[in-house]
Specification:
476 residues, mainly beta, Porin, 3-stranded antiparallel β-sheet, 10% helix, elongated
């Protein structure tokens, strides 16, 4: 594999929307909008958010099981709402003239694209007043964050037709290559540019229980342990005009072809494991006067040891590129062929392995049960450690909202959120319970993380959160 533009563009890659988000509400459809997930999420849904909540039962059902609870969010500064639907998620139309290409360059210059996806493939929990609560879940988590400077955006859409490459040569085999006779180093050329991506499965086992049981005060604590199976990770960060940080480990399914050897080479095809790791979440919660809950949790403490197709980049001059650029806005399906070649001036170094921390963060929140049908609360999420880690939240996240249940078969969640890289949003969630008896529960629902997006065109948060196979069994 060759140089720093490779990590920039050949890895603006085949990010297919696998059924997979670890988001601020954990991808739980029945919590999106309420603004206090760290306090309210219960049973297996509390894994990864606050395992202390396994110590108390939200309903009369001891067992809960769920399948395919899915959440997706796309925050796009470069693309309008219709462009996200039509070009990023749909079948993008190719550019027909240079003015459209120029507009694409302008749109992606110094603008942020954030994508987060989560899918709970399976979740199970058992909760008992004396024994406490046990839970297990299998989840997929994907994140993408990118901000390109003008030169990076120009290379993406114009390739060797960029004015930077002042010489174009057609090879005997018909390939066209652009050369720069006065090349700049990647750090200078791409500053400021930031790209990160993370994709892994997590297998989570958690336990929580009540430790203090007074009439007007109850204390709960919990912990969950996670085995992390990594499929893909990349990070490119232009720290300054003289320094860059770049590393990656990608499963063969990404379609990236490597020209340099690495001791961690993955052969074959498909979604092969590129790294394994371990993580924990710990949390506590308090119940005061049977009406108010306060909770705090530390999440994603751990790391993944990447040992498949691992490379670390160097800061080298960018003097050669072999692509004319992509022809539409679907950067994830089109950009796998963007390759800049600097093999004679510096190479990517193949590594045996590289350990990367997971993006640790702290959650705290509270809610108050004003009446049987109505609860309201608030929450804050604070990133800890480096914000340059793949999957890291870019800034703190604040939320406030309410849950209203006018009937036993229906719940409305709504509120306000700000931060986390998504700006100001108004989430809304609807949960229906076609079956809700003392012994059996069936929940279905869907939510949007920002209903304002339905009424605006720019800076949209295109999102969907849904679940149709969540069940509860066994009364107390």
């Amino acid at each position: 594999m060759r140089l720093a533009t490779r990590i920039l563009f050949s890895l603006l890659l085949l990010f297919a929307f696998q059924s997979s988000y670890s988001q601020l509400d954990g991808g739980a459809f029945n919590s999106t909008g309420s603004g206090f997930s760290v306090v309210s999420l219960n049973d297996y849904q509390s894994l990864g958010v606050n395992p202390a909540n396994l110590g108390w039962q939200q309903t009369s059902h001891k067992m809960h099981v769920g399948f395919f609870e899915f959440g997706l969010s796309i925050y796009s500064e470069p693309l309008t709402k219709s462009m996200v639907y039509n070009d990023l998620l749909g079948n993008s139309t190719d550019f027909t003239d240079q003015s459209q290409r120029n507009d694409a360059i302008k749109r992606f210059t110094d603008t942020e694209l954030l994508i987060n996806i989560s899918n709970t493939l399976f979740g199970f929990s058992y909760q008992d007043e004396k024994l406490g609560g046990f839970a297990f879940a299998v989840r997929q988590r994907i994140s993408w964050r990118s901000t390109l400077n003008k030169q990076a955006s120009e290379f993406l859409f114009e390739g060797y037709n960029s004015p930077y490459f002042d010489s174009i040569v057609v090879q005997p085999n018909g390939d066209t290559i652009g050369y720069s006779t006065n090349p700049d180093e990647a750090s200078k050329l791409y500053n400021p540019t930031d790209i990160s991506h993370l994709f892994y499965n997590e297998f989570v086992l958690g336990y929580g229980r009540k430790l203090v049981d007074k009439e007007n005060f109850k204390f709960y604590a919990g912990v969950d342990f996670k085995i992390l199976q990594g499929y893909g990770m990349l990070n490119y960060n232009s720290i300054s005009a003289t320094q860059v940080e770049g590393y990656q480990a990608l499963s063969p399914s990404y379609g990236v072809k490597y020209d340099e050897p690495t001791p961690s080479e993955l052969t074959g095809s498909g979604w092969q494991t590129a790294g394994m790791g371990f993580g924990i979440d710990i949390g506590v919660s308090f119940e005061i006067y049977q009406k108010t809950r306060v909770a705090i949790a530390l999440n994603d403490v751990g790391s993944i040891k990447w040992d498949g197709n691992v490379y670390q980049g160097e800061n080298v001059p960018i003097w050669k590129i072999e692509t004319p650029g992509i022809d539409n806005y679907n950067i994830f399906s089109e950009s796998g062929g963007i390759i800049a070649d600097n093999s004679s001036l510096g190479k990517w170094e193949g590594l045996k392995d590289k350990t990367v921390s997971t993006p640790m963060h702290l959650r705290a929140g509270a809610n108050h049960q004003a009446m049987d049908e109505l609860a309201f609360g608030l929450e804050i999420l604070i990133p800890l450690g480096s914000d340059d880690l793949p999957g890291a939240y870019v800034n703190p996240y604040y939320a406030a909202g309410a849950q209203y249940s006018p009937a036993k078969w229906f719940q409305l969640s709504a509120g306000f959120t700000y931060g986390g890289g998504y700006g100001l949003n108004i989430p809304l969630g609807l949960t229906f319970r076609p079956i809700h008896s003392e012994s059996t529960l069936w929940e279905v629902g869907f939510a949007s993380r920002d209903i304002l997006t339905f009424f605006k065109t720019t800076d949209p948060v295109v999102s969907m959160v849904f679940g149709f196979l969540r069940f509860g069994f066994g009364g107390n």
